[in-house]
Design a protein that fits this description.
Order of helices and strands: HHHHHEEHEH
Strand order of the largest sheet: 2-1-3
Distance between the termini: 39 Å
Number of helices: 7
Helix content: 40-55%
Structural class: mainly alpha
Shape: globular
Number of domains: 2
Length: 181
């Protein structure tokens, strides 16, 4: 099998094979995230299967992975996470409770964190707030002259992903004025 096709198929599996939620409430978040990810998979596959694709398979795979990073499997407690907490002696209520949100999350922004804290968003005066990629991007989009700085233990490219995602958001997007949130 062609290496580019194998890489695309691996990205498809990454997109669709996300951890199952431990609770019914988590199922709603899981379904929303999986549907978003599935939509991007369909777009990528249709692009590759087109008689005259606009981009090659390698570009399409990179674009798919970029879109998947915007929709991480986060914001719900997975079955594996709940089992690990139960094994550590936590009660069921403690095992399925979501962790507190990151400092970059605005109090009126009710969206869940998109993973661990990986960036610090600095304003013009170098005051900063630590955040996950999701809330970091939303905060950065709402600042003039802000910039993301990756935490020392952040995955490679975290600050770049936050910067790019912020470029696609309007300021204060959580205020729900009909645009994408």
């Amino acid at each position: 099998m062609n290496a580019d096709i194998r890489d695309l198929l691996a990205a498809v599996v990454e997109a669709l094979d996300i951890p199952h939620p431990a609770t019914e409430g988590g199922a709603e978040v899981y379904d929303r995230i999986r549907n978003e990810r599935a939509t991007h998979v369909v777009v990528a596959l249709r692009s590759v299967l087109d008689d005259k694709p606009l981009m090659d398979v390698e570009w399409t795979t990179a674009y798919l992975r970029e879109q998947l990073a915007k929709h991480p499997a986060a914001g719900y407690v997975t079955v594996a996470q709940a089992h690990a907490k139960l094994a550590a002696g936590k009660s069921w209520s403690e095992a399925v409770a979501l962790s507190p949100r990151c400092p970059a999350a605005h109090p009126e922004d009710l969206t869940p964190c998109g993973g661990p804290v990986v960036v610090t968003i600095l304003d013009r005066g170098n005051a900063g707030a630590d955040g996950c990629e999701h809330h970091g991007a939303r905060l950065l989009a709402s600042l003039e002259g802000g910039r993301p700085v990756a935490k020392p233990d952040a995955p490679a490219g975290a600050a770049i992903r936050v910067f790019k995602a912020a470029g696609n958001l309007r300021p204060f997007c959580w205020l729900g004025r009909g645009e994408d949130q």
